[in-house]
Specification:
Layout: E1 7-13, H1 18-26, E2 34-39, E3 54-55, E4 58-64, H2 71-79, E5 88-91, E6 97-98, H3 102-112, E7 116-126, E8 132-136, H4 142-149, E9 161-163, H5 164-169, H6 181-189, E10 194-206, H7 214-232, H8 236-249, H9 255-267
Parallel strand pairs: 1-2, 1-5, 2-4, 7-10
Antiparallel strand pairs: 3-4, 5-9, 6-10, 7-8, 7-9
Helix pairs in contact: 6-7, 7-8, 8-9
C-alpha cells in the first residue's frame, strides 16, 4: 500500500474531557498514520490534560487554538497539519466511536475505486448512556449518493474519509455555512469525483438529550438552502430539497410563509 493511502484523522475538541479518551480508544489506525486533535480554545478541561501522545500505535498531535472559533475553523486547522505525503483525511468527533476495522475498510475502498473521492458508512446513533437509538443507512453507490445530495447530505460527517488532494483543490472547508460545513464541503468534493458509503455501521455517534437547538436549526436551514441554491439553481429536485429542509426545520404554522420565501428566492435566482 502506497504512502498516498496514509490517513490523517482530524478530531475537533472543545471541553470534552474523557469523551476524547473514549473516542481515541476506539480508533485503529496504522503506525504511519496520524491523529490530529484540535482544541478549539477550551478554557475548562483543555485537551492537553487528556490527550495521549499515541492512540494504540498511531501518533497523536495536539493543536491548540487561542480562541474558540467554531468547528469549521478547528477542522481547517486540523486538516492543514496533515503532512504532504498523506493522501487521505478522516473525521471523527469527541464522544463518537468506530469499529476496529473502519479505516481499513475505507482505505481499501478508496484504493479499489479511484474515481471515488469521498467515502462514508452507515452510522448507529446512541444515547448519552450508550443505548442504541437508530441506524442511519445512507445510500451506498455513487449514483444514489449523487441523487441524495440534491436533497440532503448523503455522507455522515464523522464517518467520512476523503482524498486530501481534492480537499485542497476545492479550498478546504468553506466558511459561511454554519451547522452545514460538511454538506458544503462534500458538494464541492463531488464536483471532482464520486461519493459512496460502505453499507455497514462502522461508526457510533452519540447524540445529546436535548437535540439540536432552535438557533442551530435556523442556521442549518439557512445554510442548506444556500448550498442547494448555489449548486442546483432552480432545478425541480433542488426545489424539493429546499422545501423538505424547511419542513424539517420549522413549525407547521410557519410552513406557508417559509415555503413562499424559498420559492421566491428560487424564482428570483438568489
Amino acid at each position: 500500500m502506497s504512502e498516498r493511502e496514509r490517513i490523517c484523522l482530524v478530531i475537533p475538541y472543545y471541553e470534552a474531557g474523557d469523551d476524547l479518551t473514549t473516542t481515541l480508544g476506539s480508533v485503529r489506525l496504522r503506525a504511519d498514520d496520524l491523529i490530529v486533535v484540535v482544541d478549539d480554545g477550551s478554557r475548562r478541561l483543555p485537551a492537553r490534560d487528556v490527550a495521549p501522545r499515541e492512540a494504540g500505535r498511531t501518533p497523536v498531535e495536539l493543536v491548540e487554538l487561542e480562541r474558540h472559533g467554531g468547528i469549521t475553523a478547528a477542522l481547517r486547522a486540523g486538516a492543514s497539519r496533515a503532512p504532504e505525503e498523506f493522501g487521505l483525511l478522516g473525521r471523527l468527533d469527541c464522544g463518537d466511536t468506530c469499529r476496529p476495522d473502519r479505516f481499513d475498510k475505507q482505505r481499501r475502498y478508496l484504493e479499489v475505486h479511484p474515481s471515488v473521492v469521498l467515502v462514508g458508512s452507515w452510522v448507529d446513533f446512541v444515547a448519552p448512556d450508550g443505548s442504541f437509538l437508530y441506524r442511519l443507512e445512507q445510500p451506498a453507490g455513487p449514483e444514489s449518493v449523487r441523487r441524495r445530495m440534491r436533497i440532503n447530505c448523503a455522507v455522515t460527517h464523522p464517518a467520512a474519509v476523503f482524498r486530501r488532494s481534492i480537499y485542497q483543490q476545492v479550498g478546504g472547508y468553506p466558511a459561511g455555512y454554519p451547522a452545514a460545513e460538511d454538506f458544503a464541503l462534500f458538494m464541492r468534493l463531488l464536483e471532482r469525483g464520486e461519493g459512496a458509503n460502505i453499507p455497514e455501521a462502522l461508526v457510533r455517534c452519540r447524540t445529546g438529550d436535548g437535540g439540536i437547538s432552535e438557533s442551530r436549526r435556523r442556521q442549518q436551514l439557512a445554510s442548506r438552502c444556500r448550498i442547494l441554491i448555489e449548486h442546483f439553481e432552480a432545478r425541480p429536485v433542488a426545489v424539493y430539497g429546499l422545501l423538505r429542509a424547511v419542513v424539517q426545520m420549522v413549525t407547521p404554522r410557519r410552513w406557508s410563509t417559509c415555503a413562499h420565501r424559498v420559492r421566491t428566492m428560487i424564482d428570483g435566482g438568489g
